[in-house]
Amino acid sequence: MRFSASLRSLARHALPALTLLALALPASGALWLEGPQSTFETAGPVAKGQLQIFYVTLWVTTFLFVGTGAALAIATWKFRAKRDATTNAEPPPQGHGNPFVELGLTVGSIICLVFIAVPTLKGIKFGYDVPNGDTPGKLAALVEKGDAYRVTATGYQWWFQFDYPTEKIQGGGTLVTANELVIPAGKPVHVDIRTRDVIHSFWVPKLAGKVDMIPNRANHLWLQADEPGYYFGQCAEYCGDSHSVMKFRVIALAPAEFAKWLADQKKPARAAAPMAPAPATPAVGTMAILDMMGRDAMAPLSGTGDAREAFKAWQTRQQAVPEDNAKLALISDGRRLFKEKTCVNCHTVRGHEGAGVNAPDLTHIGSRSTIAAGLLENTEARLKDWLINPDHWKPSNKMFHGVGGSGEIVMAGYIKADDNKHPMMDASGQPVRNIALTSADVTALTAYLQSLK
Fold first, then answer.
1. Which of 123, 184, 364, 431 is the most exposed place for a label (fewest CB within 10 A)?
2. Superfamily covering domain 35-71+100-265
3. At residue 286, does pLDDT exceed 90?
4. SS3 letters for the chain?
5. Cβ density class 249-267: b for 16+ within 10 Å, e for less
């Protein structure tokens, strides 16, 4: 009897304690998933609104869980079989229960759903259009007055292109960048969502929720960074072999810094050195091999994931550093190789050689903090790693395997195509290289690309 009474006392005190613990843990941060893409550390009104919807859903479902669990525990304890005779007795007549209880549970469930549905519907409406910009005319008026900004995000396998339709560049056309979206802080930004191949999804957890990029279907969202900062984003819809490494960044700048960044980006590529003439005798060397001994072979997240550290590094990269004569010679040679190795067929470098549209715009790649669609830090070592073997970092990427479809290569990348437009194989069954870079080539190309600021 004493044991039974103690057990009942423990159950009576444990249930309220567990309930309070379940409610207190989220508020204390003990269950938070902290990190560069945590949805609990919001930095803009859209993300904050979506977090509030999560809170409402959490508290309502916690109430239901605790209430249902408590009723089940009480019924199990109160009506348990206390004797063998009771255990083996015939079950009592079964009925449908108390109609008032059943009706109350039904009405209560509907009320709980309403508590969740109302803020959810409001949140969907709020996150779809810029405030006071829910029609094309209203949005255009806001953009013209400077009360909102507009960009286009386009998903490719496996990188992001960002177009600034209101920003005209020198020589005609509009500003285009890749994998780093720079926006003005404190201002709503309307983002038109597009894709050039399969379904992708645009997601910046700290600024806004996921929106799918669907072929042949226009879509959009809006986001706003309350303060200048550096935010991590990625594709959130499975889109093929390298989906998990399809990342991007959003950098929010104060108005004056954003205006300066725009002015710099509109200029043609920096010409640190002219293109070197082709050598009379082609250089001979062995093909560079990727050596990852003692280093991070996968690079799941470029940098440390510290947004403040990454933001400072990005700001530092905006400044061009004077090169000595030896570096200028490397840059000049790298510019020649960029053309000779057919990089110009896919990449654009405004003002230099290259006007391709199948790959990221590299006009100012030296000022970006990441390469390989946000996967690797934009350092000399990592850029060399990427140039030597891009397929190691992004399996099936078009830079390595070429542009094409249905197993055919329409435009060759690192791999050569045969007469039937299929990958050409050597006697050992290995693909034949169309682009074979020596260590000297990689060093020169890296110097050239790093100089583009």
1. 431
2. Cupredoxins -  blue copper proteins (2.60.40.420)
3. no
4. CHHHHHHHHHHHHHHHHHHHHHHHHHHHCCCCCCCCCCCCCCCCHHHHHHHHHHHHHHHHHHHHHHHHHHHHHHHHHHCCCCCHHHHCCCCCCCCCCCHHHHHHHHHHHHHHHHHHHHHHHHHHHHHHCCCCCCCHHHHHHHHHHCCCEEEEEEEECCEEEEEEEEEECCCCCEEEEECEEEEECCCCEEEEEEECCCCEEEEECCCEEEEEEECCECEEEEECCCCCEEEEEEECCCCCCCHHHCEEEEEEECHHHHHHHHHHHHCCCCCCCCCCCCCCCCCCCCECCCCCCCCCCCCCCCCCCCHHHHHHHHHHHCCCCCCCHHHHHHHHHHHHHHHHCCHHHCCECCCCCCECCCCCCCCCHHHCCEECCCCEECCHHHHHHHHHCHHHHCCCCHHHHCEEECCEEEECCCECECCCCCECECCCCCECECCCCEHHHHHHHHHHHHHCC
5. bbbbbeeebbeebbeebbe
Q: Which residue's entry shows tokens 């423990």?
A: 10
Q: Which residues of 355-367 are buried (b: 16+ CB within 10 A; e: fewer)?
A: ebebbbbbbbbbb
Residue 37 token pair: 């893409």
Strand 180-184 to strand 247-253: parallel, antiparallel, or no bridges (unpaired)?
parallel
The residue assigned the tokens 């690192």 is 414
pLDDT at 99: 81
Instruction: Identify any residues that bridge with 175 across adjacent strands, giving them in sequence order.
Output: 164
pLDDT in tens, 75-93: 888 877 777 777 777 777 7
CA-wise closest residue to 204 among 177, 187, 225? 225
Q: What is the mean pLDDT of residues 267-296?
A: 83
Give the span between the Cα atoms of 337 and 331, in whole angstroms. Answer: 10
Tokens, residue 30: 């003990």
Phi, psi (degrees; rounded to nearest 5) at 416: -80, 145
C-alpha 450/C-alpha 272 separation (Å) is 10
Grade residue 16 by pLDDT with cuts at 50, 70 and 90: low
The pLDDT value recorded for residue 7 is 46
CB 200 within 8 A of CB 219: no
